[in-house]
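Most newcomers find our protein records easier to grasp once they have seen one. Sequence and backbone structure share a record, each on its own labelled line. Nothing more is needed to start thinking about how sequence determines fold. As an example, a complete record with its sequence and its structure tokens follows.
=====
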Amino acid sequence: MKFGILVNEGPYTHQASDSAYKFAKAAIDKGHEVFRVFFYHDGVNNGTALAVPPQDDRHIPNQWSELAKQHNVDLVLCVAAAQRRGMLDEDEAKRNGKSANNVAEGFRISGLGQLIEAGIQADRLVVFGD
């Protein structure tokens, strides 16, 4: 089965991020495909390169980055939600006259069309968070 995943909540403040990651990992481990994970609203904070959790805590952005790297999962941050929250990749930083970018490895910024495509291409679109 091919899954699309929508994450609407940020890491460390809501269970949605952890649940979405564990769902994606379990689906892949069972032989299913995760076509895309789309991060929307506060969910875009899962893609920050600037998170520094305590050493004895899980590093949620790094977990997503590793999943993308190991299993070729497309991790997409909503451009509008990301910009509102100060999340910029290199292209968006240049376009907006900013001096830095802060999107973690394996994530990319794009529009809502990527969410629509995930809903069309996947057998199921699973939503985590409000």
